[in-house]
Amino acid sequence: MLLKRNLLSLALAAGVLGLASCNKGGDFSKTKSGIEYQVFKSTGSGKYDSREIGAEGDPTYKDRVGKIMALHVEYRTAKDSILFNSRKQQFNYPVRVPLDSVRKEQRGGLEEAISLLQPGDSAIFRFNVDTIFAKSFRQPVPPFMKKAGNTMTMYVKVDKVQTRDEAMADVQKMQMELPQKMQARAKAQIKTDDVTLQAYIKKNNLKVEKDTSGVYYAVTTPGAGAKPKAGQLVSVLYKGSLLENGKVFDSSEKMGNKPFDFVLGQGQVIPGWDAGIAQFTKGSKGFLLVPSSLAYGQRGAGADIPADAILRFDVELVDVKNAPPTPANQPNAADIQRQLEEMQRQQQGK
Fold first, then answer.
1. Helix/strand/coil percent split, the chain, to 5
2. For the chain, is the Cβ count within 10 Å smaller at the N or the C terminus?
3. Is the pLDDT of residue 108 over 50?
């Protein structure tokens, strides 16, 4: 969980769907391919009526092929854990989906679900997880999804259908606005997090120090030697939990009690770890209290770490040594992350 594992979120965010503002009750209809759905058409004044769809799908979809659909989305596991919410996690910007003809092998996947939607529609889609990951994501079902159950549900609100030029203009506007929005939100969130952290520290009578980045840390068992430097390879035993309720989301114990190795200061882990582990010496034990902006931020991570989650890590710095040289032209984790984000922006702009 410590690495920036956003592949699933990026794939889903770049590819599809939006948040339903309609009634979640009622029975589902089903396509021939097995997608369960409820589709609602706006009647004005915030009201929606159920919209029937024929066995062969929406006959008007052919008129939208070649255009771009802008949608808001929330998707959940079978246990109703929220995996992604475009309004909250994308600063209220919709995801954009290129509309293409649905091929035979895409029936039962996201592509077919999108083809059922018209501008202004809201909808609920329920998919079999094995089918959706095989057809639309072309990868195995992540273990946490499989553990939650056999279905994945998506709540959708269609914003509009655009030409490619119109969509590109909106994306360019978003790219100009986004840095300022992100900066403003981060400043507000770190203040909110710090209030929560100070209350937690006072309630539990903890003696901590605060790094300049905003991470709180405490060394409870001293080690020996100097603190590790950026570029050195560190080995850490850890247990990560949510500050809010103490739920453990990841630990070395789950990995066979093997230390987690990473090169300090290279963006291979969340910023709170790069800053916090640098305060420990070899053999020392303690804990980190990491504000959300230095952890997984507004996106969260999978089903276990919600958006804006403050994290606690109980850690032991097992070893510090010089890292092996990086082969020439080999990208590090930060480079890969930037490439993925660029791929997402390009996908939304298609």
1. 30, 30, 40
2. C
3. yes
- Tell me the catalytic residues: 238, 249-250, 270, 296, 313
Q: Which residue has the tokens 């992540």?
A: 142
- Which residue, among 74, 81, 76, has the nearest Cα to 129 in the 3D structure? 76
Neighbours of 280 (CB within 10 A): 24
**CA dihedral sign, ordered 313, 316, 317, 319:** negative
Candidates 3.10.50.40, 2.60.120.200, 3.40.1110.10, 3.30.470.20; CATH matching 7-162: 3.10.50.40
pLDDT (tens digit per residue) in 317-332:
999 988 776 554 544 4
Residue 249, CB half-sphere, CA atoms under 13 Å: how many?
23
Is the distance from CB of 55 to CB of 152 less than 8 angstroms?
no
User: What gap in Å lies between CA 48 and CA 156, rounded to an integer?
Assistant: 13
Query: What angle is formed at CA 176 by the lines to CA 331 and CA 168, rounded to 5 degrees?
Result: 85
- Express each pLDDT in 185-205 by its tens digit: 888 888 999 999 999 999 999
